[in-house]
Amino acid sequence: MHRKNKVISRQNSLIHPIVKNPFLHRLELKWYDKLKIAVMAVTVFPIRVLLVAILLLLCWPCAFIAVWGRRDEDKLEPLTGWRRSMRHPLIFLGRACFFVMGFHWVCVRGSRSSCEEAPLLVIGPHSTCLDAIICFVCGLPSNVARAEGNATPLFRTLIEVTQPVFVSRDDSNSRVSTIKEIRRRATSDGKWPQIAIFPEGTCTNRSCLISFKPGAFYPGVPVQPVLIRYQNRLDTVTWTWDGLDV
């Protein structure tokens, strides 16, 4: 059977569709959901926190070995040889961290492009720090990180092994230098690992994609889009609560 297309008048076609506020998130819990939270807060949650802490402590020696003895001038070049091979145990431990946090199954559709085919991974929508799981799924690529996150001793070593491109909000020249560094790595013919970028630049409730920052597109090289979906019944991962009015 042929289905007739619905005809929209010219006047109605000019009306913009109603878009849900991407910075507003409300979680309506039923009484049994609250009961589950109360029970798991004193049973499962402490065990998961302990296991995550143990796995993070196991990650640190691997990261320390990978970056040990590197001079400042060495940081301008990618990790190679046995240093780069330390990524494999880090990927395993990282996936284990997310497993004990409840991410028991990660379904990947499609295939990941190589560094030569697509030097940049453009990931969205961005809604939580738990989106970092995509980095372990994609083989621990580099990313664009805030320079302020490099201050914690434990996480500084873990972050350094990914060789991120640091950007500082306090430095007026940081944006230009970040773009130059992304371009330098993206045009290295696969010498550097892929760079993972969340182009939205902030967290939303995943109801839509907001405007992209142009940083990932300045180098003019192919990018691979990566879509993240959480299929849990309750959206307990979104960070935004009462954000901007739109």
From TrEMBL:
<feature type="domain" description="Phospholipid/glycerol acyltransferase">
    <location>
        <begin position="120"/>
        <end position="231"/>
    </location>
</feature>
<protein>
    <submittedName>
        <fullName>Lysophosphatidylcholine acyltransferase 2-like</fullName>
    </submittedName>
</protein>
<feature type="transmembrane region" description="Helical">
    <location>
        <begin position="89"/>
        <end position="106"/>
    </location>
</feature>
<dbReference type="InterPro" id="IPR045252">
    <property type="entry name" value="LPCAT1-like"/>
</dbReference>
<keyword id="KW-1208">Phospholipid metabolism</keyword>
<keyword id="KW-0443">Lipid metabolism</keyword>
<keyword id="KW-0812">Transmembrane</keyword>
<dbReference type="Pfam" id="PF01553">
    <property type="entry name" value="Acyltransferase"/>
</dbReference>
<keyword id="KW-0472">Membrane</keyword>
<keyword id="KW-0444">Lipid biosynthesis</keyword>
<comment type="pathway">
    <text>Lipid metabolism.</text>
</comment>
<dbReference type="InterPro" id="IPR002123">
    <property type="entry name" value="Plipid/glycerol_acylTrfase"/>
</dbReference>
<keyword id="KW-0808">Transferase</keyword>
<feature type="transmembrane region" description="Helical">
    <location>
        <begin position="37"/>
        <end position="68"/>
    </location>
</feature>
<keyword id="KW-0594">Phospholipid biosynthesis</keyword>
<keyword id="KW-1133">Transmembrane helix</keyword>
<keyword id="KW-0012">Acyltransferase</keyword>
<comment type="pathway">
    <text>Phospholipid metabolism.</text>
</comment>
<comment type="similarity">
    <text>Belongs to the 1-acyl-sn-glycerol-3-phosphate acyltransferase family.</text>
</comment>
